[in-house]
Amino acid sequence: MNTIEFMRDMASRALRLSRNTLDLHTSRELRIMGEELKAKSDECARERCASAANPEPSPENS
């Protein structure tokens, strides 16, 4: 499992726990954590796609 998949899995777990937690403070914290992890995994995926589409020339090929 790569980092992006791991963060998405953790986001999903946190969001699922937030929906099933009766304590409102804990539920809110888990929801925020899940949303942050999801946003970060999406950012990492975009960066990975961008770097794959536009690879920087290596110094060896100059």
Give a short summary of the structure.
By secondary structure, the chain is mainly alpha-helical. It is 76% helix and 0% strand. It has helices at residues 3-19, 24-53.
Can you put this structure into words, describing what you see?
The protein is an all-alpha fold and 62 residues long. It has one domain. Helices cover 76% and strands 0% of the residues. The protein has two helices and no strands. Helix 1 packs antiparallel against helix 2.
Give the helix/strand layout.
Layout: H1 3-19, H2 24-53
Helical percentage = over 70%
How can the largest sheet be summarized?
none
Number of helices: 2
Rg from C-alpha positions?
A: 17 Å
Computed structural class:
mainly alpha
Number of strands: 0
Strand content: under 5%
Net shape:
rod-shaped
Would you identify the regions where 5 or more consecutive residues have pLDDT less than 50? none
> Mean pLDDT score, rounded?
88
Structurally, the number of domains stands at 1
- Summarize the helix and strand pattern as letters: HH
Compute the separation of the termini in Å: 35 Å
Offer a few descriptive terms.
62 residues, 2 helices, mainly alpha
